[in-house]
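Table S2 (continued). Query chain:
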Amino acid sequence: MIAMHTETTMPECSACRPLESERRERGVRWVFLLTAAMMIAEITIGYTTGSMALLADGWHMATHVGALGLALAAYALSRRYASHRAFSFGTGKLRSLAGYTSAVGLGLIAISMLVESFWRLFHAQPVAYASALPVAAVGLLVNLASVILLHANDEDHAHSEPHPAGNRHAAHDDDHNHRAAFMHVVADTFTSMLAIGALLAGHYLQIAWLDAASGVVGGLVILHWGLGLSRSAAAELLDVVPSTHLEGDIRQTLEKIDDVRVADLHLWSLGGGTRSCMVTLVTSVPRDANAYRDALSPFGLSHLTIEVQRCAGH
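Corresponding output:
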């Protein structure tokens, strides 16, 4: 085979979509302030009332404050170094790294909740239900407001509009940093609901063990969420193929052109919903690389490298 030509194109990069990141960052900033204020209140009153449910919710919220701060730092660094030459493919994976770190933190706090809750199941502590319930209710309201804030500043719903070329892959945007922040506030909302249910049962039905049991249930569910988030963020960091369907569609699209055969194809995520592709084509009638690039334009690839080789003997 004789190599004919190679062309690299970058029609879009992660820095070309600043408005989405700015909206998401603004939402995370407001949620960070709300969560920090509520964290201080819940931990303080949880200790004074002796409520494990309230303490678990407060300390769990403390890890979310750290995770939200990490998310803000990732957005700031991603924006600052977006055009820095040291980042060959942009800074999208800074957000993936922050998301993975947050997921690990989510798993660790879930384990600590489980340990403390199991201990409380066998070593019951007195709980001041009347004092703890109002704080737990306020915490739930803060968490619900946080969920709404993050959802309102998330542009993913706008990306669900049909792509002009009708391709189902071009509209997808995986911001693991924002997803981690959202997962943290959803977990907070869940533990707040468990805490309120346990406190009500203890106060009105004298079922004291539900307070500790709510910590066990919350820890198990949050651990499951953290593992799922860490797997998806790690896959992006390790350059796992983001979609075998997308890879197959790219291959099929190219091999419909003349007698083209795809000899090599690499597809990976750059973070923030952007994807890169490197492909080697073999054909007896090579065209200009722009022709192949145009054929792949519906897939919304941010970085595309095409090598075209002529079959030997032609």
